[in-house]
Amino acid sequence: MNDMKKIDLHIHTVQTISDSPFKFCINKLREYIHTCKLDAIAITNHNTLDIDQFRQISTSVDIPVFPGIEINIDGGHLLLIAEKSELSDFAIRCSEVTSRISAANDSIKTSELIVIYGDLSKYLLIPHYEKSPQVPSKSLSELAPFIDAGEVNSPKKFVYCLKNSDSLSPVYFSDCRICAELVSYPNRHTFINCGEVTLNAIKSSLRDKTKISLSYNGPSLIQVFEDGQEISTGLTVIIGERSSGKSYTLNRIADASSNPKFIRQFSLVERNEKEDEDKFNTILSRNHSLFTQEYLKEYQSVVNEIIRVDIDMNDRTMSNYLDSLKKHAFEVEKLDAFAKSKLFREEEFPISDLNELKKLIASVQHLIENIEYRAIIDKHINNQKLKLLIIELMNEFGKKEEERLKRIWLNDLIVDIKTKLKIRTAATAISEVDLYKVAIDLEKKSKFTEITNMLRKDQQIMHRDIQGFKIVARKCEFTSVTELKSSTKSRASLKSAYQAYSDPYIFLQEMKNIDGLPESDYYQLFARIQYLILNKDGYEVSGGERSEFNLLREINDAQQYDILLIDEPESSFDNIFLKNDVNKLLKELSQSMPVVLVTHNNTVGASIMPDYILCTKKEVIDGNIEYLIYSGFTTDKTLTSRNNKQVKNIDVTMGCLEAGKTAYGERRRMYEDLEN
Amino acid sequence: MKILKIDNGKGFYSLDETTWKQIDEIDKNDLMALLNIVLKEDARMDAYSSDAIANQAHQIIYKSIYEKLHTLLNNKSKFKDESDRLYLEAIQKYSL
Predict the structure, then answer these.
(1) Does A2 have pLDDT greater than 60?
(2) What ipTM was assigned to the predicted interfaces of this complex?
(3) Is A451's CB within 8 Å of B90's CB?
C-alpha cells in the first residue's frame, strides 16, 4: 500500500458567477496541501482557466498541480483536466468555453465540447455522477469512451459505486474554495494506487476499481480526520472509559461528515409519559398524513360538493313558489292586461348541464385510445363500432348543446319581459323553483349521510409490519371534542358543532358557522383516522416500547443520510432489545453505509462484531492530559494511535466492555456455577 | 299511480290515489311528496287543459304544478343515472 497517493482534483481558486464570494489565498492552499498530506491536486474553476494564477500556484507548491476546468455541460458539471505541458493550448480552448457561458445556468452541449477540445482522450474527464448537478445519462453515453471516473458526494455513494459493477469508478474530492477564511480542511479526498503521479498514471488507476479507495489502507476504510484517522466504510465501534473522549470523537466525526444522521444519547427516552405519548401519536399521524389524505380523497370531494348544498334554502324556494303561485292565482279576477299576458306567468326552461353525456363521451374516448389494455378491449368491442358510437354521441351532444343555448337565450328573453311586465303591474309574480335541483340536492344529502356513517364504522383500514412492531390505521367515530380538535390546526371552538356530530349534514352546517375553521379542514372532522403501534403480542405499546420503536424508526430513517452516528444506545434500552433488534439492523445498514457507534456495553460493542474499533484513551504524558485514539480492525491483536503508540486489543476491549479481565472471569464463573 | 287529475272543472292532487285534495290546498310538504312519487314510482297525471278546468285559480295553479312535475317526469331517467352515479367512488371505497 506504499504507492497509495492522496489526490484532490476538484479545487476552486477563482470566484466566478457560479460561486459565492471568496478571495483565493495561496498560503492557505499550501497549508491545505501540507496538513492533509496531498500528493497531487488539480485547479478546476467554473468554466474558466486563469493561466497566470495557475502558473503562480504551480511554482508555489511542491506537489504536481494539473490545470483543469469545471464545465457546465447539458445542465450538469464536468471536470476536464489536462497535462501541465499542454497548458498554453489548454488555456486557449478553455477561453472558448468561457466565452460561451455568460450565466450560471448556461451550459454547452457535448458536441460543442468535442469541437472545442478535439481529441478528448488526451484529458482526464470526470463528470458529476452521484453528485448534483449530475451530467445527464445521455451525455454520459456520448462521452463514455473518454470518461475515466465519476464524482460522488459522500463515502456512502463512493462505496456503492465501488461495489456496483455497472457504476463508474468513483472519486471523492473536496470541491472547496481556497480562501483565508477556511477554518478546517475537508477530508474529501481519493486515494489511488499508482507510482509516479502523472495524468496518464492517474487515468489508468482510476479505470481500475481495485486501485482506488478512501484511505491509505484499502477500500474498507475512510479517512475522517486531518491527522489520518480512519473509520470503516461499514461498522465502527468507539469504546473507551468514561470521560476518555468517546462522544467528543463522535461529534468530530459528525462535523467532518456530509449529511450525517446523529442519534444522540438519551434523545429517544421518554421523560413525561403523557406528553411523550401525545407527541408520539402526533408524529405518527403526521408521518402517515399522506395515507390519511389518500384514504379520505374521495370523501373530501363529497364534502366539497355538499358544502354548496343548501336544503333550507331549497325549502324556502319551494314555499315562496307555492305562496306566490296561489296568491297570483287568487288575484286572477283583478289581473290587469300586463299580468294577464301569457309570458307573465311563463316558467323558464329547465337547463340541463350535459355532464352525464360529457362523461359518457370521455369514457368511450378512453376505450378507443387506451393502449395498455388494447387487446382485451378489442376482443370484446369492435373499435370501428366504438368510433361510430362516439360520433353519434358527439352529434347528440351537438344537438343538446344547441338546444341548451337556445333555452338560455329564450330564458333571458322571458326573464327580461317578465321583469318589464312586473314593473307595470300590481299583480303578484310567481317565484321560480327548480324541482330537479331540489330532488338531486336531497339525494346528495342522503348519500353524504350514508357515506359518513360508513366512514365512522370502526374498522382497521391498514396495517404494516415494521421491525417486529405493527402500525395499524383505524377509522372510527370521534368520541370527544378534544379528539376532534386534534384533527385540525384551527384554534376555533368546536364544542357547539360537536353537539350535532351524530347528524353529518347538521354538523356540517354548524361547522360553516364557525369563524376561523377553514373549509378545507371540514372533511377531516367527520371521522377519525387513528394510528396505533402494536407490539409483538398485538397490544398497544408501552412507554419503553415506544422508545424502542422510535430508535428503530430513526435507524431506518438513516438510509436517507450518508453516515449514521449513534451515541450509547445502551443508556436508554435493555440488552435483549439491543441484541435482537438494534444490532441486526445496524449490521444490515452498515453493508450500505458507514455506521459509527459509541458504547461501553458488551452486548452492543462485542456482540455486534464491528468491522473496526476506535478506542479513546485519556493519558497523562509529562503532566499533561492527552486524548488519544487507538484504532484497528476487530481481529487485529493491537490497536495503533496516530503517533504510533500501541495497546493490546484484548485489554482495551475487555476493559471497556466487560469491566476488565477479572470482572469478566468472575461473571463467567458465576454463570457456570448457575448452570451447574 | 295517479297524482294529478281534473274533475268537475277543478284540479286535484293525491298522494295515495284515495284521498284527493283540491290543487289550491297544496303545500310545500305535499309538493315534496309528489316530487318523490314522480321520481321513484310510476306517476300519472291528467294533462292540463284550460277547457277542462273552469276555476281560473285552479287553472293557474294546476298548469304550473303540472308543467313542473311533467318536466321532472321527462328527466326521470336522467335523475336515476345521476343519482346512481352520485359519489359512487366514495361509496365503493368506504363500504368495504
Answers:
(1) no
(2) 0.91
(3) yes
